[in-house]
Amino acid sequence: MENRRARGSHSFFKRRLAPASLRGYRGRMKATLLPFMAALSLAGSLQAADKIGEIQLVAPNVYFHQGDLSKGHCNQGWIVFKDFVLVIDGNFPSGVEEVLPKIKATSKKPIKYVVDTHHHGDHAYGNQAWAEAGATPIASEGALAEMKKYETGYYGRHPLGRWEWAAKSRADVRNSKLLPPQIIFKDKMVFDDGTMRAELLYLGNAHTHGDVFVWLPKQRILFSGDACVNGPYNYMGDGNSIDWLKTLDAAKELKPKIMCPGHGGMATASLIDDQKTYFTTLHRLVKPFTTKKAGQQMLTAQTGLLRKQVVKNKQIARYVGDKFPDQLQKIFGDYTGQTLGRLDVQKKAAEEEKK
Ligand SMILES: [Zn+2]
Q1: How close is the Cα of 344 to the center of ligand 1, in Å?
Q2: Residue 195 CA to ligand 1 centre (angstroms)
Q3: How far is C-alpha 236 from the geometric centre of its chain's CA atoms?
Q4: DSSP-based three-state secondary structure for 305
């Protein structure tokens, strides 16, 4: 938890906003209508509590929605431009079903675009459902390349790709179909209608090789996807743990005031520091093993001890979870080229098939 006090914020953050379209909605569904910085000032803390399923007004015309992880849902955001709504993150199809009425309660404008922050199912498998709602999915070149790599079923290389694997356990995936992003950009794509500006940025490898940040320079709000999370949600299997540190530095250079992560509650800029401190701590602990003979076995044997060390640091204790052993192994692998081979869901799928 963060203890630092909230400092001065822009006046619009302090203004209580309740658009007419939301007033009726509030009665039916729990919604947070107090802009984020104002809510923080009242709470006296810079770290917001989990507000799963609520409509959270981050700034005028900018919304955040914390997904329900028990359903596998990612966090989402939406930005209301003059003529349309842009949604951040595709989610699973069931996540689209859940968030669509909430978006429609905040704006009558057409939902035209959805940005997949990366190729993972909980951020991109809802694309077809968004298309049915009128929105075109957007992602980076890197995210599309990742999709081509892992979606072997769709691209015809192996019938059991990640989508098919997810469909085994998820009815919403089974009942939909994979729709790759239709608008692709390399490093930067800008939406600017004179009043609202959103920059879609690829800042380097991180959680995957195609992570997109959505940056609102006027409000200094950064939607980070899973390149920066708030809690024990760092899945590292598809990214590069060494590049990730540099990418977080690049994100920090934007100087955001508000962080809307891919998983976990909304937070202030210190979230980037927390996430980076967690990773640098893990790197520092793993590195000595990388030069030892049988280093990987030693690392595996000492994982419990290392976990105890990391949770002692209050700044990063909340990042330690069941992915901790895989995180250590992934970092070890990125330095040495050796992996345990249990990070890839398709390998798990292949094992399952052999049974
Ligand atoms: Zn992800």
Answers
A1: 13
A2: 31
A3: 12
A4: helix
Task: State the pLDDT at residue 50.
Answer: 85
Q: Quick one: pLDDT at residue 108?
A: 97
CA 303 to ligand 1 centroid distance, Å: 24
At 16-74, the pLDDT tens digits run: 334 434 444 444 444 455 565 555 443 333 455 789 999 999 999 999 999 999 999 99
Provide, rounded to the nearest whole percent, the portion of the chain with pLDDT above 90: 80
Q: Residues of CATH 3.60.15.10 domain(s) within the chain?
A: 4-280
Residue pair 286/328 in contact by the 8 Å Cβ criterion: yes
Distance 13 CA to ligand 1 centre (A): 30
Per the listing, tokens 């049974």 go with 355
- The residues facing 59 across adjacent strands are 62
In angstroms, how far apart are the furthest CA atoms of the chain?
66
Taking the centre of ligand 1 as the mean of its atom positions, its distance from the CA of residue 37, in whole angstroms, is 27
pLDDT confidence of 347, banded at 50, 70, 90?
A: low
In angstroms, what is the span from residue 139 Cα to ligand 1's centroid? 14
With 0-12 CB in 10 A as exposed, 13-18 as middle and 19+ as buried, what is 144? middle
Sign for the pseudo-dihedral over CA of 70, 161, 343, 182: negative
Ligand 1 centre to CA of 17 (Å) is: 32
Residues 6+ apart with CB under 8 A from 24: none
Give the fold, CATH level 3, of 4-280.
Answer: Metallo-beta-lactamase; Chain A (3.60.15)
Question: How far is residue 155's CA from residue 79's CA, in Å, rounded to a whole number?
Answer: 32
Nearest alpha carbon to residue 140 among 150, 129, 148, 151: 148
pTM assigned to the model: 0.86
- Strands 258-261 and 221-225, bridge-based pairing: parallel
Q: Is the pLDDT of residue 143 over 50?
A: yes
Separation between Cα atoms, residue 108 and residue 24, nearest integer Å: 14
The alpha carbon of 207 and the centre of ligand 1 are apart by a number of angstroms equal to 7
Q: What is the pLDDT of residues 299-330, one digit of tens each?
A: 999 999 999 999 999 999 999 999 999 999 99
Q: Is 227 helix (H, G, I), strand (E, B) or coil?
A: coil
